[in-house]
Amino acid sequence: MSTSEFRVDPVGVTLIVGFGLLITPGVVFVSVYLLSHHFDFAQASVGELIAAGLSALVGVVVVRATARELAGGVGVVIDEQGVRKGGKTIPWSEVESLEAPQFGLLDIVAGQATLRLRTYLYRDRRSLLRFIAERTGKTAPELGNSL
Fold first, then answer.
1. 31 versus 4: which is more confidently predicted?
2. 98-115: string of b/e by CB count within 10 Å (b at 16+)?
3. Which whole-number Å values give the CA distances from 8 to 13, 46, 66, 78, 93, in the listed order?
4. Residue 141, CB-side half-sphere exposure with 13 Å CA sphere
5. Sequence-distant (≥ 6) Cβ neighbours of residue 77 within 8 angstroms
6. Please, which of 55, 94, 142, 147 could form a disulfide with 31 given CB 3.0 to 4.6 Å?
7. Please, are residues 16 and 66 in contact by the beta-carbon 8 Å criterion?
């Protein structure tokens, strides 16, 4: 199997980025509108200030969630030697366990290093899981159900 078989699905990435790009400007707009509606905070109602603060918080949460989702698939290299993400490399021979904390997530654990893959971002998820299971000789609850 070659690395080219394990590409991130562009449709999934587009949906995640699109969600982030649609929600974030909306909540930022609500925050700015509610705060600029009353230039004097003394005249602003408590409810408006709370709504502005909550909408700003939602914007921050959405941006962080979008970045976290994409980090689990974009930039990950899976090949015959192991899995790499940024400066972190985990050779298949060093993998101690594969954990699936929830559907679509796969934690590859090797000593102190853990790399979390968002398997639902990949085009051919089943082949990816099969490849990892073959290379590591390990299984995870999700792998058993997906093969």
1. 31
2. bbbeeebbbebbbeeeeb
3. 8, 45, 15, 11, 24
4. 7
5. 3, 83, 84, 85
6. 55
7. yes
Degrees, nearest 5: CA angle 22-24-30: 105
Token pair listed for 6: 């394990």
Query: Following CA atoms 64, 71, 130, 142 in sequence, which dihedral angle do they give, to the nearest 10 degrees?
Result: -20
- Of residues 49 and 107, the one with the higher pLDDT is 107
pLDDT tens digit sequence for 44-100: 677 777 777 777 787 788 778 777 777 767 778 888 889 888 888 899 999 999 888
pTM of the complete model beyond 0.70: no
Strands 82-85 and 76-78: antiparallel
Work out the number of other CB atoms within 10 angstroms of the CB of residue 80. Answer: 10
For residues 27 and 72, give the distance between their C-alpha atoms in angstroms, rounded to a whole number. 25
**Chain-centre distance of CA 47, in angstroms?**
33
The C-alpha atoms of residue 128 and residue 136 are separated, in whole angstroms, by: 12
CB-hemisphere CA count at 13 Å for 119? 24
